[in-house]
Amino acid sequence: MITFSSCSAGKKKPQSTPDKIVVSYSKGRCLGKCPVYDLHIYDSGRMVYNGLDNVSKKGIYKSTISLDTLKRITSLMRYVTPKEIGEIPGRDLPLTVLKVHDKKVVYQALRINGNLLDINTLIEGIVNNI
Q1: What DSSP assignment string belongs to 69-85?
Q2: What is the residue extent of each domain of the chain?
Q3: Bridge partner residues of 37 (DSSP)
Q4: pLDDT tens digits, 77-95
């Protein structure tokens, strides 16, 4: 019995490494018409937006951001302090959950300042351009 095979039959195809989520950003509900969405940004600059409620674009949208912008977000996050988060009194303001690498903060966007405000502004600008 004769068996034929090609040169590549014994070679394994290289598997690509999946992107890792670097930034997760979720806008929560309020008692009114606050926008509700999730945004995930991967280490390659790829991003996935999921518009849930009270947004102009509902559903899943995929896009990319520059690696410089991603680097700016991660750099600013290193210097976020508890003072920048502000207090979280009141029940009608939506909570935002931001996770960059392994650092997570929960805040109300109207009560933040400093580096956290800069990150929030950058991310909301990204969302507005989707």
Answers
A1: HHHHHHHHHHT--HHHH
A2: 18-128
A3: 27, 51
A4: 999 988 888 776 666 678 8
Chain mean position to CA 65:
11
Q: Is the overall model pTM greater than 0.70, yes or no?
A: yes
First to last CA, the chain: 60
- For the residues 42-70, what does the mean pLDDT come to? 96
CB 114 within 8 A of CB 81: yes
Read off the pLDDT band of 102 (50, 70, 90): confident
Contact 43, 19 (CB under 8 A): yes
H-run or E-run covering 22: strand 21-27
In the DSSP assignment, the letter for residue 116 is H
Listed in sequence order, the residues at least 6 apart from 71 whose beta carbon sits closer than 8 Å to its beta carbon are none
Q: How far is CA 102 from the centre of its chain?
A: 13
What pLDDT score was predicted for residue 6?
A: 46
Backbone angles phi, psi at 78, to 5 degrees: -60, -25
